[in-house]
Predict the 3D structure of the following.
Amino acid sequence: MADISDEVLALVENHPWEETIPKLTYYALKKIKRRYWLGVFGGPTPAATEAEDIVMKCIKKVLDGQRCWEPEKCPDLYRFLLGVIDSEVSHLVESWENRYFLREEALAGDCNGEETKDFWQAVPDRNPTIETKLINQEIEEKSETFFQEFYESVQDSPKLQMVLDSIFEGHIKRADIAENIGITVKEFDNLKKQLRRRLQLFQGKNSGENQ
């Protein structure tokens, strides 16, 4: 464990946590919702660990010096903490409890309330090859980066971000999304059109940058 310098401690204390913590919590929530927990996709995590718990633990590790933040190498503390969250979630996924225990609903072949033809098809390989891990990690990182950048690109429209939040939380039907964010279905339809246009522009911009 490394001692945290006064300079780094001052930067941490003066960081705009009121803006960063909600974003970190949202990021952690996305990560845990896309994992199998005790055999159930998106189910409750071991010891009922919440996204907020993960974020606070990661911040504490920086303050304790367990995770050494070097501002000269990574000036953005927020970006650094995203990596700490990734490690923390991966550690929780690989924990003994999560790897070797299954919930009742998983054993019954009912993951997330949906019956499966074969439960074992719904449970990920506990010992994937290194190549598979690397491919899955690369795909996930690209997806996470794309979503995060697109989400930030519509920050000028809080309602569009609310739609994205609601979809991520698992709401699919237009009426459910509208109710979840407190708007009418008609207003949601208009926001959906805006979101589609913004996505097309965002994809076009990214494609141009990648050429």
Summary: The chain has eleven helices and four strands.
